Amino acid sequence: MKKRFFILSTAFILCIASIYAEDSPMCRWTFTRGPVTLNGETFLYNEYPRSWREQEGYALVAGIKTHYWLYDTYTYHNGNDSDIMDDILPAWVENMGYVIDYDNHEHMSSANDVPSSVKALMTQRRCDVAVTLATNSTPHKLIITSFSKNKNSYFLDIYPLYKDNIFYDPVIEDAINECLLRLDKSIPNGYMRGSGNIYIRDTELGTYLLTPFESGTCRRAGIGHFFENIDDANAWLQPFIDYFDIKGWKKWKTNVKNRQGYDNPSGSRAGPYAEIRFPKQHSGGWWGVYVYFAVDFLSFDPELDNMQVILP
User: 224-245: per-residue pLDDT in tens?
Assistant: First the structure.
């Protein structure tokens, strides 16, 4: 049985914008005991990568040219990928300065979730493992597609990577701080009155929305956006989810459908809580997403349910 600890979802594959790795995962690896004979063929001590038939290739994933390192574990290693999974790939990312997050992984093992272009690349190269590094996401991620002949099944794997203590997008942190700064304060200049009792301000990242108490101070502050398709909506929302996870915001166990609530890192209701609205399709086919912070401790706000004020 193949060992694997990296996991992937199709939603993540579809939001990859750029993937690049400079040195190969096996560039520093050799056989330590001199020449080795594997399945009838002899390899010199420095021909370790050749024994795995290491090669590079590209696949078009969601219209994006994506770089892969490819390996054949069956020809000379009888399908045993433990060296790649347990030693080579961890050492590869650690040599680039990453720390592997072993606590946050997911798994998907359906062939339907593997892009057809990646399966075609693996078939063309007669390889059963394809590896790529995603550096545009927050955090960065190591991605593996593999095929088990015994199970006649593909596997998608993802594992979060952290580097230089930068665990989240600073643009996202600035947006969150902007929202938190507005709570319990008067509506500032630069916001215009939208529909109902909502004040808005458009930015490149999205539209900020403030909802005041009757006293005029802000009870809710958030940012939202509308997209033509659900994949772009999820891609916009993911860095906010990463931020909450990394910074220790506490997920609510009970939530309204299509939403996820969070208590602040202290776990106390003495401070603001947060809520994520996952993609919801609105009039005209647009998909809306929204992240907000509040101090009123209500789980539902009918004024924000439609968010027509920020439709394009």
Answer: 999 999 999 999 998 898 888 8
